Every structure is written in structure tokens, then in C-alpha cells.
Amino acid sequence: KQGRLNDAQAWYQQSIAEGNASAGVYNNLGIIAMQQEDYGRAVEYLRKAHAAAPDNINITYSLASTLRDNREFDEALLLYKQVIADNPGYPNIHNDLGGIYEIMGRPQAAEREFQMECDSIPAIAAGDNRDPDAVVRLARAYNGLGECEQALAMLSALIEVLPRYREAYYARADVQTKLGDIAAAHEDLETVRNLINHPETANVPGASVPAAAIDPEAGQSSGFFNDIEVALKNGRTLRGRLKKETQTTMTLEMRVGDSFGTITFQKHAVKSVKKLQ
Questions:
Q1: What string of DSSP letters covers the chain?
Q2: pTM exceeds cut of 0.90
Q3: 232-252: per-residue pLDDT in tens?
């Protein structure tokens, strides 16, 4: 992984040397620097990207987030407010602001921002929102509001369905840190590092299948029932509703709290199947 990042970095730097600098090139160099955990250089590149494309809301957000990680809060706040002016519903913007205000010792401002994040995705509470990004956003907001156990339950349920979804592990590590379970938080962060470095082969603790994806057409907000129990050879057991079966694969529709998703796995990974209804 590090070798591929170095190769990409060298290619973009060569493009700049040849006079092909652009906001996109600097933005990509900034992203590479963040993946290398070189946050000072990431800020340097993202500043150049922002100067070249000041109206690009995604670059503005990336720069603000990197400044936040560098604890340059005053400038980060100004940039976040620019993003809100352009798009008040930009994903995670209020969670990010809430986190800054927490660190700055402004609990009322932090609570206001976390509540605004919750209010921006109300459909999830009614079971209408099955987007895993929205589940993570809401869990982060709950964590900020002190509802840590609820946030932990949501994220753990999501990881059951999407065992390689890195953002869920990042968010759960934050929750576990707040709960004082540093060992569990460290384990989740190690899982993220493994997934970044070995996305296809990483051994994910508790993962039931190599990969999974939320199906936006899956599930109904009421009347859901499990009709099948699948025992996998890795020791995990899944319950859900059989949605599709081919000669080589099975797809289960599963419920994650108030959200729904599907998980597909190879039949050779199955130990036994039990009908529940």
C-alpha cells in the first residue's frame, strides 16, 4: 500500500514539475499525505488546492477537516462556515463543528451542533433511511450528545452487516474512547489500518463474509421477519430473509436497527441453513 502511495505521489509531483499543477493534483497529494499521516504536508497541499479552486466545496471541507486534525481550530471554523453557507446540509458538517466546540470547552455550542446533525437526517429514526453513511453520522451525533450506548449499539449492528466498512470502525473507536474502553478502541483502529493496507485480504475480527453492501431497495419499514438462519464455516450465524439465491451465492436481507441492508456470500462459506418460518 505504501509503495502504491509513493508511486502516486511521485506521479503527481512530476505533473507539477512539468507545469500541470491544478486544484485536483494538489487535492490528491493532500489526500495521499493524510493517508500517510503527514498532516502538516496535507494542509500545505490542500491550501494550494483551495487557492486554485476556492469555490470547490469538497476541497474546502477537506482543508477544514485537516486543519481541525492539526488543532488549527479558528481557521477550520471559518472554512466550515463557508461550507455551511454553500450547503447547510453538507454531511457531517455539524458533527465536525460539535467536535471542535467540545475540545474548545464550549459544551452548549457543541450540543447545538450535534443536535442539528441529528435533525438533518430524521428519516433514519423512522426506518426510511438505509444509507450506512447516515447511520454513522447519526451515531456520531448521539455520541456527541452523550447517548454513547445507543451509538455503540447502532455501529456494532452496522458492522455486523458491513464488516469492512471503515467509517463504522472509526466512529465506534470514538464511542469506545468516550466510554473509557481504550483497548476496544485500539482494536477498531487496528482493524481500520488493516483494511486500508490490505482491503481484500485483511482478517476482520468477527467478519462473517469477505464483503457486503447496503442495497437501497432492501427492506420495508414495518413487517420485517427473519425466515432463515445461516451458519457459516467461520463460526458466525446470520439471521434474515432470503432475498436471492443462485447456484453459487446467497443474499440475505437483514435489519440493522431501523435500517435494512443485504449481504451476499458464497455458498462454499456456508456450513448449514435452517428455515425459521
A1: -HHHHHHHHHHHHHHHHTT---HHHHHHHHHHHHHTT-HHHHHHHHHHHHHH-TT-HHHHHHHHHHHHHTT-HHHHHHHHHHHHHH-TT-TTHHHHHHHHHHHTT-HHHHHHHHHHHHHH-GGGGGT----HHHHHHHHHHHHHTT-HHHHHHHHHHHHHH-TT-HHHHHHHHHHHHHHT-HHHHHHHHHHHHHHHH-TTT---TT--SS--B--TT---SS-----EEEEETTS-EEEEEEEEE-SSEEEEEEEETTEEEEEEEEGGGEEEEEE--
A2: no
A3: 776 667 777 888 788 777 777
